[in-house]
Amino acid sequence: MPETLGLAPKRDVILQTPRINLQDSVRNYWVATVEPHITRDDLLNPPFWANIAVAFKQFDRIEVRQDDGKFFAEYLILSADKTSAYLKELNWYDLTSNRAKAKNVGYEYKWRGPHAMHSIIRSKDGAVMVEKLDTKIAAEKWLVQYLETI
């Protein structure tokens, strides 16, 4: 048996109890819904978060979704101060790639503000076919179903 030179015998390394906690007690999980003109680069620009940065803590997470449903993303907050937040992008999902595209069918999608919301407009006369749908995806789905019935 080798000599231990007065050291304690080697033992298995284990995680100490104070080093593990429920996520709710050590970090926040934020959800941000951004306007359709906000880009991926905007989200990584530290001053973009100026209005809320003071509330962020290192290792908080932010889930970001766009109003019109074009993307979904997740970010890790690396650091934050009173006017900026520095983020690491964890996931980015482009939600437009598998959508049915209704091109040259005589109808168009249009965001018409917070009251009329997502709408489908007939191109030839500007008639509103449907409005007040929650997402762009719902409007496109409505149009696909409508075109199948006419």
- Overall shape: elongated
What proportion strand? 25-35%
CATH topology of the largest domain: Ribosomal Protein L25, Chain P
Tell me the number of helical segments per DSSP (H or I, 4 or more residues long).
4
Overall mean confidence score, pLDDT: 88
Per DSSP E runs of 2 or more residues, the count of β-strands stands at 7
State the share of residues found in helices, binned by percent.
10-25%
Summarize the biggest pleated sheet: 4 strands, mixed
In the CATH hierarchy, what is the class of the largest domain? Mainly Beta
How many domain modules? Answer: 2
What is the C-alpha radius of gyration, as a whole number of Å?
25 Å
Q: What class, by secondary structure content?
A: alpha+beta
Strand order of the biggest β-sheet:
1-2-3-4
Named at the architecture level, the CATH assignment of the largest domain is: Beta Barrel
CATH superfamily name of the largest domain? Hypothetical PUA domain-like, domain 1
Order of helices and strands: HEHEEEEHEEH
Contiguous runs where pLDDT drops below 50 for at least 5 residues: 98-102
| Cα-to-Cα separation, first versus last residue | 87 Å
